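Everyone, study these two lines:
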Amino acid sequence: MTRQPAVSRLTFDDVMVPTYSPAPLIPVKAEGSRVWDSEGVDYIDLAGGIAVTALGHGHPEVLAALVSQAKQLWHISNLYTNEPVLRLARRLTDATFASKVFFANSGAEANEAALKLARRAAFDRFPANPEKVGIISFAQSFHGRTLFTVSVGGQPKYASGFGPLPGDIEHLPYNDVEAAHSAIGAKTCAVIVEPVQGEGGIRPANREFLKTLRALCDKHDATLIFDEVQIGMGRSGSLYAYMEYGVTPDVLTTAKSLGNGFPIAAMLTTDELAPHFSPGTHGSTYGGNPLGAAVADKVVELVNVPTVLNGVRERSAHVLASLRGINGRHGIFKELRGMGLLLGAELSDDFAGRAPDFVAAALSAGVMILNAGQNVLRLTPSLIIPFEDIDEGLRRFESAIPSVTDSQAAA
């Protein structure tokens, strides 16, 4: 057997395109909500691979689904269908508003498909209105890294330097009903919104805001797209967050937790819109491959049960109560917000801009957390994380706080 070459964190700098700046450690093993690095140091995972490992690491039933399918059929191309993807599509349509599903590999691809579908539907349905191509998005939104999705996303830094960018895209203030009324009109083909903004600072939408978007899309024959890549698949406390709000979109995108770490995404839509993606208009080589579909089918089966969804609400309340206690002792947070197990802690003005420092300090103390911008700490753990792991993770986080606050005081 050929010996594997030795690698270290320094190898990244030698051989990888510097798109990322990873932490100094290399995780090599994980189970449940605990991770071990190459030095044997253990970490409590309150990041969940950025809201991905909804059932934790190495879930035995998910692993069994992967292994079973791997022994049968890995890939067959979209020239054929396959049994796992049909089972998954049926499970998703049975559980949601949708009647049809398109599978892709990532949230960006699912959003790309949703935006293309909206423009294609407007092209087909309104030939007398060629200007009906406008897309409404919202400030601080994030929808992916393709050229189209960074243009639609409401954070200019991600699109800077990649022009010329796709046009006819307008960004409105999030949760601003008046702005929506002013901007959405006859030229609008789509409105895309995150029910809870993730990268934009963990900001939940107001119910009135989403209801207004629904009504305006109905009035102006526009497609309403909910980007649930991060909040979807149980993280809100419902299978999808639209169920929490009682507002149904025309298209919903889902990824991240859908595969629990196996790359898979889906665009869910209706019988009315689906035919506008006729054969040849869109596609994906790997989208809906048997391996990913078998894993995701098991994930949806395990997540979409009352014990898990109710458990999300219980864990959410527990985390928030613990964070309030930490804040009472250290006074570092301005606001706690979010939904379910997509939670954000906005730093107080005294620590503005230092979210990455808290993330690094937490890692040194043995807990993985995230930031959402420079001012917000983000927690997206497994939906079934044991309460003792929550407590231990937050204890480790609290122990790391003085390393940041003391340096601030010294400065």
